[in-house]
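Quick note —
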Amino acid sequence: MRRILCVVLAVVAVAAVACSSGKPAAAPITAPPTEVPTTTPPSSTTPSTAKPTTTSSTVPRTTVTTSLTLGPGNAYLSGSVNGPQGPVDGATVHVERIVGKAVATADVQSAGGQWQLPAVLGGSYRVRAFKSPDLAQSDVQTFFLAANERKVVDFTLTAAGGDRITAAINPSPPRVDQPSILTVTVGVGRVDDQGRPALTPRPNVLLTLNPAPGYALDSPAQVLTDGNGAGSWRIRCLTEGTSSLSLQVGTGVTSVNLPSCGPAPAPTTTKPA
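Predicted structure written out below.
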């Protein structure tokens, strides 16, 4: 079975992603320059009898770093953290209390899929959850907590693994009859210790680039990714406009959407002395 692959083209402020399983996608999706999972998101109907991803008999642990007072107070935060396999043990719930430009933070570790942060002050809060390296960050939840409120905040995490492909072209945008370098990076998605998406590079992956009409390839079509999971080609725009290139990664095929090729630079003229 061919693996599903995703490509993200991130060039300064221009980004596009296209996914395909065995052939180029007919309708690429425009997206910001972030890593996009190739795995199918888990169903929201995960049975409640699913086993936790890990087990623990410990109570939740909390590490607080503060430039503003988080407590003590009479408010209380708690909730659950679930993933594709059910309750998640050892997830990080990052809590921020915000007053103006000052922020107090607390990192709470879930135990058996539950987390709690008692005796906090009321105010504006921003909370998110993740588990490094395999469960991606949840949506950020923002809310106002009353001084004596007991609020439940639940999270559902998705898998962060799977193949990731990013692409960048330099210069951007490319111009007609001017050389450009297209670089593709292949890796496996993960989450770092701050909840940010990251890549573990995959070296020695065979990449084959097939230019579309309107482009010329000035280097070999096939390259192997290096130690950083990257492979590069020299390409040239032959006409103005946008297009995509077919890219084979191992046994899978996808497409790389390029920014619109600009016109050739105007010829320079030298005035007579």
